[in-house]
Write a structure and sequence with these properties.
The chain is an alpha/beta fold and about 700 residues long. It has 26 helices and 18 strands. It binds ligand L6W4SP4V and nicotinamide-adenine-dinucleotide. Ligand L6W4SP4V binds next to strand 5, helix 3, helix 9 and helix 10.
């Protein structure tokens, strides 16, 4: 876990060897302690260099070890001992020095970093703080205003383009005769601005606004205050207390769970050329995603004028995107055409035409004729049967859904929809292409709405039922935003556009001329149905783009949502028309009904084998709907609330609303409760039917 050798006759070289990122696991800490002991007691050794194997200094504490009882030498005394040692220690930093890795570097008396090295404290993203003296030492090294502006100022003693370890060894030899006292960062006094309190208060306000309810950033500010106002030994104690609170919090568990869930969900591993058919809202963004990673793109439209519009839009997006990333726009990768015959040699096609099965089938039949036999045929349908499309081609095994989310060049989530006949290689190729484009790709089964949209329905339904019963859009949104969503369901719907759902409801016979005239009021297809969303759309209110939806906006495309008296009137008229007595609805009921219905559908999806594991569902909601990361995703959240409680509350709500099937607890939820409530990671073991590819 760490290699110890003597180089240049007098420098002890300690190399951390814990792939892939040399995380400071208990074994690594053990090995560092042992090596340091050897180096400090060996009279031949005059200086020490610490580096990491395979291009990484150290990725920090081994996060996996946080899930069990803490073992091995604690980091704080180990690091204090390195700093207090009487021989100069130099950190040779290549790759990452993150979290505990950066803390290790900070106790070294000198730091040599490769120009491409990344140093930092990402702990807040894991719900904790740098708790091995990091908050106390970094502030002492660079001062508080610097810490607020940049973490890079004054941190390293030399930046090199060469092998950092070799440079560090030479540096260590020169450092031997120099005094060490001023190199011990914990002995320095933190440089503070005169208006420290005002600065920290302002940062606290900003953090509370930006990340409401999230604990770790606030704890970091308290640690900064300690570094500014306390001696090191007290400051480190305070850092430890703050860590203990965070470490045992549900937020830390949720965020660490998210870290690994994101990587687990992405575990899938050649595409040089691709085609995109349809340059509308989605097609443009998808074309940009492909070109951004160097894939040449043939873009197809149905008419000359539309092709030209699409071309201009794509070029504009590419140029803005390239400017933002400081690279040149890859316009030479594009060819624009009206003819599918130009696609004969491409490796992969993504169909992005209107959501119309007959049209999509015609496109797939044509592709089958023109594309070479090995070309993968993908569809961006948001809900149609991928297997029905595969069925009209000569290569059903090479057909797969690649479901991007709007705006496609921004949203991280990609659902890879596996049809029953999609081959493993096809799925793997789509997954790895997603990863290459920087997406978080999740393989899902082929069911209506797939995973994200299927789960969204009961969530939105609950919100609209709550409107009928007495709540307002702003009350519901506030409850969900207090829970941690950046936007409540109605603000989010106004942003996405209300017309899409309206069209889907019409096509499903839920409103419009296809509705069964015998349907009782507020019931469709045998279940409760809220007419309010259709009434809003009938007034031409489609959300932000029309200047009004659930809220009013100052202009078309405006983003500043204000409560609209017109919606208030509509709700009152509706309730009195249908004899509904409005009642006071608590925030708890809002959150429970929306989120438990969401999770309940997730259990149903797992049970149907349409998602491989709860982690996949959580990742879909983290990256495809802005579920608050510190809550871990809907399935993890349900596990934190306690499955027994979720079950009881769903039973309670279903009893009160028997005409809402989505509130009826899913059999899988009941099974998990009956078999002793296993942790999320073990739920998969209780699922009987699993999609063959998941
Ligand atoms: C490093 C990265 C930037 C690399 O990114 P890249 O894209 O190249 O690769 P991946 O992200 O896919 O990662 C590859 C692979 O490596 C795994 N991995 C990465 N980092 C770690 C890690 N730190 N630990 C374990 N595993 C790691 C990753 O999972 C992948 O593996 P896979 O499973 O997919 O095969 C990038 O990975 C990255 O950003 N990593 C995280 C970096 C980070 O956040 N570091 C900080 C860690 S936390 C820390 O260091 C805390 C310190 O301050 C020390 C604290 C000491 C105190 C500890 C205990 C105090 C207890 C409190 C008191 C309790 C009291 C009580 O209970 O009573
Ligand atoms: N808009 C979204 O938020 C969203 C999100 C995910 C998935 N989707 C899915 O993506 C697909 C496209 O949606 P959109 O919102 O981009 O629609 P859109 O109406 O904005 O664009 C569709 C484009 O396809 C073009 N087209 C139609 N027939 C064609 C043909 N035969 N050859 C070439 N081009 C043709 C049209 O001219 C139009 O430019 C749909 O299946 C939709 O369900 C949409």
């Amino acid at each position: 876990m760490a290699r110890y050798e003597l180089v240049k006759r007098s420098v002890a070289l300690i190399t951390l060897t814990n792939p892939p990122v040399n995380a400071s696991s208990s074994a690594v800490r053990h090995a560092i302690a042992k090596s340091m002991k050897c180096a400090l007691s060996d009279p031949e050794v005059t200086a020490v260099v610490i580096c990491g194997e395979n291009g990484s200094f150290c990725g920090g504490a081994d996060i996996r070890e946080f899930a069990g009882p803490l073992k091995g030498p604690p980091l704080v005394p180990l690091l204090d001992a390195i700093e207090a040692g009487e021989k100069p220690v130099v950190a040779a930093i290549e790759g990452v020095a993150l979290g505990g890795g950066f803390e290790l570097a900070l106790v070294c008396h000198y730091r040599i970093a490769h120009s491409k090295a990344r140093l930092g404290f990402p702990e807040v993203t894991l719900g904790i703080l740098p708790a091995a003296g990091g908050t106390q030492r970094l502030l002492r090294l660079i001062g508080i205003p610097a810490a607020a502006i940049s973490l890079k100022l004054g941190i390293v003693d030399q930046v090199t383009e060469q092998n950092a370890c070799e440079v560090a060894v030479e540096f260590a030899l020169r450092a031997v005769a120099k005094p060490l006292l001023s190199r011990r960062v914990s002995m320095l006094t933190t440089r503070c601005p005169p208006d420290l309190d005002a600065l920290l208060d302002a940062v606290t306000m900003q953090v509370k606004k930006k990340a409401p309810g999230v604990m770790a950033p606030l704890a970091c500010i308290q640690a900064v205050r300690a570094a500014a106002t306390m001696p090191y030994y007290k400051g480190i104690k305070r850092e430890g207390e703050l860590m203990a609170t965070l470490f045992n919090s549900g937020q830390a568990w949720a965020l660490q769970y998210c870290f690994f869930a994101q990587r687990t969900a992405g575990k899938w591993t050649l595409i040089r050329s691709a085609a995109v058919i349809g340059l509308g809202t989605m097609g443009r963004g998808i074309a940009v995603c492909l070109a951004r990673v160097g894939i040449s793109v043939i873009a197809v439209e149905s008419e000359k004028k539309l092709l030209e519009t699409g071309r201009q839009m794509v070029i504009g997006m590419l140029e803005r995107d390239a400017k933002r990333r400081g690279v040149s726009a890859s316009l030479n990768l594009f060819k624009f055409t009206l003819s599918l015959h130009d696609l004969k040699d491409v490796d992969l096609v993504i169909e992005v035409v209107f959501e119309d099965m007959a049209l999509k089938k015609r496109v797939f039949q044509e592709l089958s004729k023109v594309c070479r036999p090995a070309t993968l045929l993908c569809t961006n349908t948001s809900g149609l049967d991928v297997d029905a499309l595969a069925g009209v081609t000569d290569r059903p095994h090479l057909v797969v859904g690649m479901h991007f989310f709007s705006p496609a060049h921004v949203m991280k989530l990609l659902e890879v929809v596996c049809g029953p006949r999609s081959s493993s290689e096809t799925i793997a190729t789509a997954m790895s292409l997603g990863k290459r484009m920087g997406k978080v790709s999740v393989a899902v089964g082929n069911c209506p709405g797939f995973v994200r949209n299927r789960m969204l329905k009961p969530y939105i339904d609950q919100a609209t039922f709550l409107l009928e019963e007495g709540a307002t859009p702003e009350q519901i949104d506030k409850a969900l935003e207090d829970f941690g969503f950046a936007m409540g369901v109605f603000r989010m719907s106004d942003l996405a556009g209300l017309d899409v759902g309206w069209r889907v409801r019409k096509e499903s016979g839920l409103n419009g001329s296809d509705v069964d005239p015998e349907s009782p009021p507020r019931r469709r297809q045998g279940r409760r149905y809220c007419l309010i969303p259709d009434m809003v759309c009938e007034q031409g209110r489609f959300g932000q783009k029309t200047g009004g939806g659930w809220y009013m906006y100052d202009k078309r495309g405006g983003t500043n949502a204000k409560p609209d008296p017109l919606i208030q009137n509509l709700l009152e008229t509706y309730r009195s028309k249908y004899g509904i007595q409005p009642r006071n609805i608590s925030n708890q009921e809002i959150v429970e009904r929306c989120l438990f219905a969401l999770a309940n559908e997730g259990f149903g999806i797992l049970e149907d084998g349409m998602a491989a594991r709860p982690e996949d569902i959580d990742v879909i909601y983290l990256f495809g709907y802005g579920f608050p990361r510190h809550r871990g995703g809907p399935m993890f959240y349900a596990s934190m609330v306690g499955l027994e409680r979720v079950l009881k509350r769903l039973e309670h709500y279903h009893q009160a609303h028997p005409d809402v099937p989505h509130l009826k607890p899913s059999p899988l939820l009941k099974t998990l409760v009956a078999c002793g409530i296993p942790p999320v990671q073990k739920w998969r073991e209780h699922i009987k039917t699993m999609h063959s590819h998941l």
